[in-house]
Amino acid sequence: MDFDNQKMMLIMELRRLGVTDMNVLEALERVPREKFVLKEYLDMAYANQPLPIGLGQTISQPLVVGAMTQALDINDRSNVLEIGTGSGYQAAILARLCRRVYTIERHKPLLDKASAVFKELGIENIIYKHADGTKGWKETSPFDAIIVTAAVEKIPEVLIEQLVDGGIMVVPVEAPRGIGGQKLLRIRKTGDTYETEKIFAVRFVPLVSGLPQ
Ligand code: SAH
């Protein structure tokens, strides 16, 4: 299948929708999303929508990947933590833009698949582990940026502790009960405090504590 046309259409759409950082757009152009989707969804690899990846999980919508990546403000010296490897696509995008990506996934079969794709693509700066990511990755902290790709009930203070001063975390947070939906927050740590900014409304699978049985 020839994806080039679909890919260029998608990149133009993402630009129109606010993903304007040239480095992020280049990463979206270079990372083959088709390698991270299930065979049955190959023809939708460059549609601007999330897709199932098995075990009830999804690969995020390209717009969300672009907007979250852009919001992290990373560069080639940044160390970034991702919670929720899933297909590995978001990690592969980050890997092109930063020094090192640390990523955690609680579903072993998803992590095995993702790591096989990293290997196939020759990506060497992604360090992954099979674990419950709710507590972050203390041994390899602090991080310049943290991206949580599953929804949390409230702002995870324990992860903010693992950011450098001035570091940024992007995380989808559930709206209060009754209101519904989630909002994507950009949190910037300054000293002992932090400020938050809303990016837009999103829909992520929940962050789940513990490992599957
Ligand atoms: N970033 C992914 C999309 C992730 S979907 C991609 O680019 O494809 C969210 C992922 O978070 C799922 O794979 C889910 O299993 C994982 N997850 C949920 N709770 C978790 C936890 N406590 N620790 C680690 N991973 C978790």
Q: Low-confidence segments, ≥5 residues, pLDDT <50?
A: none
Write the CATH homologous superfamily: Vaccinia Virus protein VP39
CATH topology name:
Rossmann fold
Distance between the termini: 38 Å
Radius of gyration (Å): 16 Å
Present as ligands are: S-adenosyl-L-homocysteine
The string of secondary-structure elements, in order, is HHEEHEHEHEEHEEE
User: How would the global form be characterised?
Assistant: globular
Fraction in helix: 25-40%
Name of the CATH class: Alpha Beta
Number of domains: 1
What can be said about this structure in brief?
This protein has six helices and nine strands, in the order H-H-E-E-H-E-H-E-H-E-E-H-E-E-E. The protein is α/β, with parallel strands linked by helices and 213 residues long.
Structure write-up:
The model has no long low-confidence stretch (mean pLDDT 97). With 213 residues, the chain is an alpha/beta fold. It has one domain (4-202): Rossmann fold. The longest helix has 13 residues, at 4-16. The protein is globular. The strands form two sheets. Strands 5-4-3-6-7-8-9 form a seven-stranded mixed beta sheet, covered by helices on one side. A two-stranded antiparallel ribbon has the order 1-2. The chain has six helices and nine strands, in the order ααββαβαβαββαβββ. Bound molecules: S-adenosyl-L-homocysteine (SAH). The site of S-adenosyl-L-homocysteine has 24 residues, from β2, α4 and β4.
